[in-house]
Design goal:
Oligomer: single chain
Strand order of the largest sheet: 1-7-8-9-10-17-14-13-12
Protein name: Glycogen debranching protein
Pfam families: Bac_rhamnosid6H
InterPro entries: 6-hairpin_glycosidase_sf (IPR008928), 6hp_glycosidase-like_sf (IPR012341), Bac_rhamnosid6H (IPR035396)
Number of domains: 3
Helix content: 25-40%
Radius of gyration: 28 Å
Organism: Paenibacillus artemisiicola
């Protein structure tokens, strides 16, 4: 094989600025990282190893994945001095001294004083390529010219993704061989057309293959190892030498794996540059400037995270996965949150692609409008969908439409929306009270009943359906959905509001149904040492004994979803403020965010905290909202440098898609107040800054797709008793509605000229309209 270019693969200043690092020696294997890619990705330990772990595919969720299959358990390099002068057997590069995470690649750095060397291992997964590029830079610290013998060992584990058994797929043992003329170690699964090819930027001198051949670590599974030896690699005194290795896979044929290998070997410099430029584009999209520079950095990293979740399986589709390492496939529930956070940071097309994938899979699996919960990259649906997910999906479709203005997309989605609403209010509402039955986000075991989140998101879905029908020319349908939404909203605010508690209930269920489960819940809470939960449920049990078992009533289990009426704006302001005040106490809020349960008070999650942040912002409680956003951000880097864990502060998936919702959505759509209706070419700007921010700005915000496309820059500042709002739209034809707080009696100028409001509201806010908006400055001086 021809030796390829040794051009340095450098990040460049734009991405170098985002490097996050930590010492790695002594880290737990649980401190994982991802080398992201849309076709392949690599999961390993920050200490340099490749541990066996995982519960979906037992012990196999790490390594190199090319969905719907896994390629490698891991790889290792051994270095030794060459020739007769070599006085030591050499060393495996096992435990790194430091780990460095960049937006799309990673580095492990090793000190090898016994060899007089330092080593840097760097890896990246090119876009749209079924492989991985790994480089080792070896630096001499001995002060002498030398030659090294290198052994690169790759351990395969060609095996199927979780839930593949539904297609009758069974994992076979891997078989391997060396191909000296091609410079490759080649392996295949004996029972399936799954292949991997491993080689370097130079021929190997010798090698070995064996199922019992291991490097420094044993790994589970049915894999086989290939060791490739590269002799007399020259390293100048005080200088460095680099070797690059390429791993290519295919779940179709060996020839395809070889073709990918050749592409990686010949074009990796170009592929690096393309990915680098694309990530620079992500950094340049929706550029936020706020006084809190740490939160600003977290915001920037969350933009990169979005790209880590893109899972592209050509035979099935492309869309946002949920979390690494355990949930890399597609979910209905997760995406109905995550895609909203994706919209303001340039993810308009990806949001549409993900919704289309979920809708298609749901149609194939259910065919009745019900939206699936979980779709494996095998193409099989693991859960046909909880009740809440269909309603939540419909709400998400409408928000995506508002940002994209893509009427063709809406028209394509609308038949499924109508089927979904019919499913919710017919099949899932057998008693006809408008409260759909079935599990929601929190699956209260044994209480497959009428839950608050399903009810609230159905209310939101009906409102969305009404507006969709209006846009698509169905006025009767619009009126019917609006009427149902009004009736359902009244029922939730009546039957599910607990006046004595100042909170919304979790569920509506019969006394008998709760009584049949309460002892189980109490014993479980007692076994967990959750005394708060034991006390609350024992009080509930005492109340049950005096009630008619057939009585249906509201129940409070204190799960975080009781925030959904505030999150969606369903709650009247007086109820919302009472509930939010209590949700902000230590009964519901822990050191890292909102508890999953105010009874148990032990686990916190980015989504429970994120919904709380959105709920606070919905009622213009921006200081409180910012406090919850900062609680999410406070966990940044605790497990993976550059990331936020799913479970707060530092466990669960080390990166989770729906985290973006709790950070981006309240800051961009509520604090800065960016609310487009792209199909109408209108933009509402409703800035409501927290008191901690006297200045906030955002640039390069994408609005609309196709003919509706535009781009926004917005800056809000407060000084000398006045507020100044500057904004610019790149393209003409859009109107702006500027909604200003406490401006009923304010002096307002537009581009230096005094202007009068188009409307004044009871809360003292005022609305100003600007037709065919371009670049403008608005100054607001409020009366003392």
């Amino acid at each position: 094989m021809t030796v390829t270019s040794t051009t340095k693969l450098n990040a460049g200043p734009a991405l170098e600025a985002y490097r996050e690092s930590r010492p790695a020696r002594g880290l737990s294997w649980k401190d994982l990282y991802i080398t992201p890619g849309n076709r392949t990705y690599l999961i390993g330990s920050q200490n340099g190893g490749f541990p066996d772990f995982g519960h979906h595919v037992k012990l196999e969720m790490g390594g190199l994945w090319l969905h719907p299959i896994k390629l490698l358990d891991g790889f290792w390099l051994h270095a030794a001095d060459s020739g007769e002068a070599a006085g030591a057997p050499g060393e495996w590069l096992t435990e790194a001294d430091s780990f460095h995470n960049y937006p799309f690649f990673n580095e492990h750095r090793y000190a090898l004083p016994g060899l007089g060397l330092e080593a840097v291992r760097r890896q990246f997964c090119p876009d749209d390529a079924e492989g991985l590029v790994v480089s080792y830079t070896l630096r001499d610290t001995s002060g002498r010219d030398r030659e090294l013998d290198l052994r690169f060992l790759a351990r395969t584990d060609l095996s199927p993704v979780w839930f593949s058994e539904g297609k009758g797929i069974e994992d076979g043992f891997d078989e391997g061989r060396l191909s000296p003329e091609e410079g490759l170690f080649l392996a295949r699964d004996a029972a399936n057309p799954w292949h991997v090819a491993v080689g370097a930027d130079r021929p190997f001198a010798s090698g070995a293959v064996g199922r019992e051949l291991f490097g420094p670590h044993w790994t589970a599974g049915k894999g086989v190892s290939g060791e490739l030896r590269y002799e007399r690699v020259a390293v100048p005194a005080g200088g460095e030498s680099e070797i690059r290795l390429f791993v290519a896979g295919s779940y179709r044929s060996e020839e395809e794996a070889k073709q990918t290998f050749r592409r990686l070997a010949n074009d990796h410099v170009r592929l690096w540059d393309e990915k680098c430029r694309r990530y620079e584009g992500i950094a340049a999209q929706t550029v936020l400037t706020i006084p809190d520079k740490r939160l600003q950095r977290v915001f920037d990293w969350v933009k990169f995270h979005n790209d880590w979740f893109v899972r592209d399986v050509p035979e099935i589709g492309r869309g946002m996965g949920a979390g690494h390492p355990e949930y890399p496939w597609w979910f209905g529930c997760d995406n109905s949150y995550a895609l909203l956070g994706l919209l303001p940071v340039g993810g308009l097309s990806m949001a549409q692609e993900t919704l289309a994938l979920l809708r298609k899979a749901s149609d194939e699996a259910n065919g009745n409008g019900r939206i699936i919960h979980e779709l494996s990259t095998s193409g099989l649906v693991a859960n046909p969908g909880n009740t809440q997910e269909t309603a939540h999906f419909i709400q998400c479709v409408w928000e995506v439409f508002l940002w994209t203005g893509d009427t063709a997309f809406l028209r394509d989605m609308y038949p499924g929306v109508k089927r979904g609403l019919a499913w919710l209010l017919e099949e899932m509402d057998p008693d006809g009270d408008l409260l759909p039955e079935g599990y929601g986000i929190i699956e209260i075991e044994g209480l497959n009943v009428e839950l608050i989140d399903s009810a609230v998101y159905t209310w939101s879905a009906l409102n969305a359906g009404s507006r969709m029908a209006e846009v698509l020319g169905e006025p009767r349908g619009a009126a019917a959905y609006a009427d149902l939404a009004e009736r359902l909203g009244a029922k939730i605010n009546g039957d599910l509001w607990l006046e004595d508690e100042g909170l919304y209930a979790d569920a509506m269920a019969s006394v008998g149904k709760v009584a049949s489960r309460i002892d189980t819940y109490i014993e479980r809470a007692r076994s967990m040492g959750a005394e708060h939960a034991v006390r609350d449920m024992e009080a509930m049990k005492a109340e049950l004994s005096a009630l008619d078992p057939e009585l249906e009533r509201a129940w409070l289990f204190k799960n975080w979803v009781i925030n959904t009426p505030m999150e969606t704006g369903l709650a009247p302001r007086d109820k919302a403020l009472r509930a939010l005040d209590r949700m902000g106490t230590d009964e519901f809020t822990g050191p890292w965010g909102t508890y999953l349960s105010g009874m148990y008070r032990d686990q916190m999650m980015t989504i429970s905290t994120g919904v709380q942040a959105v709920a606070e912002a919905r009622y213009d409680r921006m200081d409180e909202s910012l406090g919850f956003v900062k609680l999410i951000a406070s966990t940044f880097g605790l497990r993976l440098p550059g990331s936020i864990s799913e479970m707060s502060p530092d466990y669960g998936c080390f990166v989770q898609a729906w985290t973006v919702y709790g950070i981006v959505w309240p800051m961009l759509t509520r604090m800065l107040g960016i609310q487009p209706s792209a199909h109408e070419r209108t933009l509402t700007l409703r800035p409501r800054l927290p008191r901690a921010w006297d200045d906030a700005a955002v640039e390069q915000v994408e609005l609309g797709l196709g003919e509706a496309a535009n781009r926004l820059a917005l800056a809000v500042s407060r000084a000398d008793g006045a507020e100044t709002i500057r904004f610019a739209l790149d393209r003409p034809g859009w109107s702006v509605a500027l909604d200003l707080a406490d401006a009923a009696d304010a002096e307002v100028t537009l581009d230096g000229e005094a202007v009068a409001p188009a409307a004044v509201r009871d809360d003292g806010s005022a609305l100003y309209r600007i037709a065919d908006a371009g670049r403008h400055e608005v100054r607001v001086r409020r009366m003392p």
